[in-house]
Amino acid sequence: MKNLKKEFPVTSQYTHLNTAASGLLSETLLDFRQSHDLDYLILGSLLKNKQDAFMTKVREGVGGFFNCEPGRVALVPNFSFGFNILLEGIPSTSKILLLDQDYPSINWAVTSRELPVCYAKIDENLEQNILETVKREKPQVFIFSLVQYISGIKIDFDFLKNLKAENPDLLIIADGTQYCGVEAFDFENSGIDILGASAYKWMNAGYGNGFFLFKEAVQERIFPKTVGFNSVRGKHKEAMNTLIGKFEPGHQDTLAFGSLTAAIQLIKNIGITEIEQQVATLKKQAFEAFAAEGLLENAVLKRKKHSSIFNIKGGDKMFNKLRENDIICSQRGGGIRVSFHYFNTEADLNKLLKVITH
Question: Measured between alpha carbons, how far is residue 253 from residues 99, 141, 300, 312, 329 in Å?
Fold first, then answer.
């Protein structure tokens, strides 16, 4: 992995271990944004005349990156916006399986609609807990985060494929906000029916852009009522009842969604394989070091695989000490959350460990 401090200038000033809260602005993204707004300044509405073709390019870029047909890619300003549209299209009698203590934007959005709900516990036996709950409660829909925002526990993707194979009528909906951008992901060949994500974290795409991906059969299961003039604008959305059009009722910001395209291009330039290897190396080293220092909860220690998000033991005093040493992280769930992305290095981990242990 090449040195990326020039691409992400903040990393030359701080040890940024906070991608789980917010990704970084890259030089690549800045260049696009400056160019875009200069064009807007000079061209005005002439720039917007090309919006349909521009958004088609974004849609096709996202679909290509995650292996999803462009006609099944909805472009949304963030996960929560798209998710709430999605929930309005789920029959009100559908029983929903959630994970206890999952991300509030998932669980709150479901429970506020008074849909029938059951829960599976997040611990070292996550997959078994889900399987048992599915057998016992027989839900029609399973909604969850691929990676837990507090603990960093990551669900087993092979388990999801098997779960879908054994329960073909179970609609599996995943939030990939804490996952997309850290490794190659093939949506079409996954066990997931619907994947939504905001792209401001691990994809480093800035704020105001996200996406939802749908398997073909989903359009027979959900029926959103949202509609607007933009629902039928552009390639892949010509018909009034096109599913992705329901998620795009109003105008879309070419600056925000062009940022998503620029971020994907940067990932391609660096190489998703190289990114995956760097993240894997750092999370393995971090896991071993944190485990040796007794900083991880048992549920994480007992898992075979984990993400690059860790919640380590520590209170206000330790958190303030880290900030005083220019280490950017977050307090979550009674501990201190640190997260490692491809622009991080072994030196970042060593600095963190030095501050924690001295």
Answer: 33, 32, 40, 38, 30
Same domain, residue pair 251 and 171: yes
Q: Distance between CA atoms of 311 and 23, rounded to whole angstroms?
A: 18
Average pLDDT value for the chain: 96
Q: Are residues 51 and 181 located together in one domain of the fold?
A: yes
| pLDDT score at 237 | 86
| Two structure tokens written together for 335 | 């501990």
Give the whole-angstrom CA distance, residue 109 versus residue 290.
34
- pLDDT tens-digit series, residues 74-106: 999 999 999 999 999 999 999 999 999 999 999
Domain membership flag for residue 1: no
Question: Is the separation of the CB atoms in 341 and 358 below 8 Å?
Answer: no
Which tokens in the block code for residue 353? Answer: 């460990």
Could you tell me if residue 98 is inside a domain? yes
Please name which of 135, 170, 199, 148 lies closest in space to residue 308, comparing C-alpha atoms: 148
Say yes or no to pLDDT of 240 above 80: no
Residues 104 and 200 placed together within one structural domain of the fold: yes
- Residue given tokens 């959103």 in the structure block: 224
Within 8 A by CB and 6+ apart from 345, the residues are 282
C-alpha R_g of the chain: 21
**Residue 7 token pair:** 């691409």
Instruction: Evaluate whether 142 touches 131 at the Cβ level (below 8 Å).
Output: no
CA angle, 267 as apex, 307 and 150 as ends, to 5°? 25
- Residue 358: other Cβ atoms inside 10 A: 6
